[in-house]
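QUALITY CONTROL LOG
STEP: pairwise intake check
CHECKER ROLE: data steward
CRITERIA: each record must contain a sequence immediately followed by its structure tokens, with no blank fields

ENTRY 1 OF 2
RESULT FIELD BELOW
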Amino acid sequence: MTMQIDQRPNVGDECAEFVRIPVLDITSYEAAAKLLAVLAYPDDKKARTRFEHAAYFKIIEHLSKHPGWKNSNQWLRPDYLLLDRKMAETEYKRGIRLIRYSRMIAAKMAAPTDCCFFAFEKGRDSRGAGGKLAEYGYFAPTSAEWIAEVSMDLDRLRKKDTTANKGNITERCWTPSKPVLHLCLALQSIFNAGDEMTYLDLPFETLFNDPGMIMIVINKARYYRNFTSGIFDIPRSQQIDLDWR
């Protein structure tokens, strides 16, 4: 199935928030920090700003370990680099934990396949769509079967048995991720290189110095926005719309 991506922003289109990440006008590491911040905190702009600054700080720290990058001419934001190191570490770990343990788990719960896309294009209603392929259809993302499936992923990520928290997966992962589920799925589709666990480990380092990758993620998210709205009954007024121009 060929994916047709409309890159043009829909002026006046209903959304919870329109976020522009001007990839061509800022450095790729600043764009990556902004993208990750929207993903981590779709509903909390103050926390989003704190995490964006911390992510920028950590991304620069990561890139500076490479002599080629460190010794080249770079444009840096001094206000982002004046953070207390301990505070930056705390904010960064908190945001990345949300992305790995909530947003990407929600992406797996959605688990789109070609069959789901076919159902979406043919106007199939959302009942039973998404989730793991069952014998006669699909497990809904928040079904007991699918909760049990992603619980094993959380156990692996946390390196412990989280039985006591499994009943909260819908509340902690699925529901708060709805505004950016399309962005979660875009990252999933790019990072899942044949291994379903790969995208749960979130190799977001590939975004740090690659503006092309960031544009691809945003383009895919714009496409998936229609998919998540139709299949999972998420009102467009509750979704964040992104554009890179």
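ENTRY 2 OF 2
RESULT FIELD BELOW
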Amino acid sequence: MNTAGTVQVAVRHILSDKLSGGFLRPRTRTVTWKDSHFVVKRPASGKHTVELTCPVCSASLLAEVRNHSSTRTIASVLLVLAVLCLVAFFAAFAYAVHEGGKTLPEGQSLPVLFSVSVITIFVTFVAGPTLFLRSRGYIGVSMLDAPKPRRRHHIMSVRKAPQGVRTPR
């Protein structure tokens, strides 16, 4: 359970990442991992860096933790942007249907705004759900860039109650 002063994260160690398939078969990607759960304290203001140790390979990983209010602010901004994408999608779709359904006299072409609305439909169709999912999963903890041998790690949010929870040093 996350409180305002802490957040639960999982350090995911990637054991293997295989890509199979080819020209005539569908491509499938198989990723296997082992994760360990940690409880990280949030700072009172700003952000600070914590060190998490992967129990699989003993790698030292640096993570940046934001305070609770800025985490909620960023998640809210992402959600508002997703809603704005939804509004822009429906407005552009309605305009494209309205202008595309007209019968034009010979020699006259559709307005430039029609092509802009079609592009807006495709962009917001991808950006809206992406922003919505990012806002739902944003926890305010991000892994800082690690050297080459430590790049086989990810920091994820914990969705269910873990069995063993560690606290970083």
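INTAKE CHECK: passed for both entries
DESCRIPTIVE NOTE, ENTRY 2: The first helix runs from residue 68 to 100.
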